Each structure stands twice: as C-alpha cells, then as structure tokens.
Amino acid sequence: MDTAMPLGGKKAKRREHFSHISDLVCHTSVRKLEEITHHRVTNRLIHCMNVSYYSYLLCKKLRLDASAGARGGLLHDLFYEENSGKEKENNWRLHGHTALENAREIFDIGDTEADIIKCHMFPLSPDRPKYKESLVVIVIDKYCAILERILFWKG
After folding, report:
1. Which domain holds residue 45?
2. How far apart are CA 50 and CA 38, in angstroms?
3. Total domains present in the chain
4. pLDDT exceeding 70 applies to what percent of the chain?
5. Which of 1, 7, 46, 89 is deepest in the core (most CB within 10 A)?
6. Does residue 150 belong to any structural domain of this protein?
7. pLDDT at 1
8. Residue 2 within a domain
9. Is residue 34 part of a domain?
10. Helix locations, 7-81, DSSP H
11. The pTM is what?
C-alpha cells in the first residue's frame, strides 16, 4: 500500500480530490492522525486518505456529492485514542460521535459530512445513515480496512 498517496487513480483525479480536502488535510489536527497506528499496518491518516479518495471517486461516478464524500471520508476517524482492550469494543461503536465532535470543533461541517462521520461504522453502530454518500463511505471504509488487514496478515 502506498504510504504517501491514496491507492490508484491518475494524477488529475488525485489533484481534483485534493482540491476538495486541502483545507482539512493541511490542518495540524488532521496531520496528527499520522502518529496513530491503524489496522496494525498503516497509520490513521493514510487510512482516512484512502477512504476519502475512493469515496470521492465512487460518489463522483454515482453522481452524488463527491466533495462531501471526500471530506467526510477524511474526517471519519478524527479521534486520537488508541484502540486497546475493552475500550476497543466500545470505540468501534462510538468513535463516530467523537470524530464528529472533533471535526465540528475545528471545521464547518455540513449535514451530509456530519452524517458520514457519525454513521461510518453502521451496522456496528446504532446510527443509521441518512444520505447515499454515507453509504458509500461505509462501504469504502470496510473495503479499505479489509485490504489493510490482508496486508497485515501477509506481513
């Protein structure tokens, strides 16, 4: 998995995607995610960048709000706690709320982006998505997590 840029895509698509998230990804609160190991093989920022990029592409293909998909995808795991022990189980269900609180403290978050962040762990979390863009991020987040776990198992 490329650690510097999201997987796949052409330079023009990457530049277009970046134009929607540049104000977010350059913020120190988002950059701090780079310090947290995620899925044992990457860091949280790379995971969020991959979710953001692929969500952007799929939303665009489906003629949905690709900007909201990219921005919500980037911020979906905006929390700084490590995942361990009993906290890990609760974190799976509740970290969307923590990420949304953190995102709202720093950025102007629209309704679709808020729903994406809050509901991205559905069906593990009790929050049901209201927007199609949220469903896209839910699927892409699971896809990226599975790929990351496969890389971990392969060593």
Report:
1. 11-154
2. 12
3. 1
4. 81
5. 46
6. yes
7. 41
8. no
9. yes
10. 11-25, 28-31, 44-61, 66-75
11. 0.86
